[in-house]
Request: fold
Amino acid sequence: MRLLLLLLLMVLFTSACDNYPRDADKTLEKIKKGTLLVGYTENPPWVVKTKAEPTGLEAELIKKFAKTQDAKIVWVNDTEQDLFEQLEKRKLHLVIGGFTDKNTWKTKISFTRPYVKQQKEKHVMAVLKGENALIVALESFLHQQKSSLNALPASYEAN
Amino acid sequence: MKPIEKFEFPAELVPLFQKAKRLEWLTLVYLAITIVVMVATMGNSQAMKTAWFEDMLSMTPSIAFLISARIIAKPANKEFPYGYHKAVSIAYLCSSLALFTVGSFLVIDSSLTLIEGDRPTIGTVVIFGHQIWLGYLMMIALVWGSVPAVFLGKAKLPLAKKLHSKNLYTDAEMQKADWMTGFAAILGITGIGMGWWWADAAAAAIISLDIIHDGYKNLKQSLFDLIDQVPKTVDNQKTDPIINHIEDFLKQKPWVKEAEIRLREDGHIYFGEAFVVPVSPDNLTAYVEATSKEIENMHWHLHEFIITLVSNLPQPEEK
Reply:
């Protein structure tokens, strides 16, 4: 019983801390006012490759997210396979490309909570594993965008 | 063929047995709810999956207890002249194997997580429009999965000793495993939130050693019981002192010259026989019947105690 009380106190204490949950590698702290390494693979309307930086629904979302963190984005274009391998080796912070929650890589890397549902497909983004502050920040951002997001895919489709 | 009288517990223990059965039903309901709650909150956390798997397996002792409670109630018959008491030993084997498996699974799983450097990611969920970190929900689920287990285990221990039910005792130890893994997982998730990705697996690995120890101890004992080891006490698994007591009792009888006994445990009932060298051949039938009655009255464990008359005690085989 004493152990139980001690545990509960500990949990309450740690949870009361400001920046909780935290990252294993302090990734979010590094991204803030620093650089966000984003891998992308073309998959319209989610990600559209152009001569300059990519556009598309997800690319625009990430640009907005980077702004909230005061971060500069470094874009890396590659195939899905290579991008996920680099994410696994922790060389990228996140990867976009219109992935759904049925993606077979889900055991090896982490995906965000589905942020938009379209034609019964739940769309997710891939994030560096074990970085809880980063994923919470990204999911919170995506959640705030929710109202505008639901209308978005249709308008992109029309283009 | 002489059938063995239907007997389970003496009148004063029957309410305790009923209480044990009620506790086991309660445990099953509680575990079923826990399993659903866990699935709802587990996300992609390995720690939660482990705790969930542990909860699934920890239903085994309760199920084994309830099934065996039904089987042993059957009276002995021509096909099963010794009755169905051994069902209890089989239930005990199932329970201890489950406990051992939980421990082994935990140690392998958590070591692999540590070796592979697998970093658990815990994201957020939205409940009633509020976005919260899933880790908090997991902690609540784990508190639900741990705290009642403490009380269930504590309620079962004294019953197990009084009913001489090793299965129930193993079940109480399973509940200990439940709350220990639960608390370890809470610590682990708190650790993950602090950015210590290894915390959760490390906590699980330490806890699993204790569970393996309990599981191994009981698994060994359940196998020994099935190969008719002398009766052992429920809690510390020492040879039951009643064996010496019966032997002394027999040797003090005026009609007994020499005596040796042999006992085995069938569930919570002891069966056994005494080999007695009588002083004289007079009046033996009456002596044998009276003395077996007296011995059977010593303790409710003792049932069907047979006295066999011999002219010499069998000597241990010499090498």
The first strand of chain B starts at residue 124 and ends at 127. Residues 297 and 303 of chain B are 9 Å apart (CA to CA). Chain B has two domains: 11-226, 242-318.
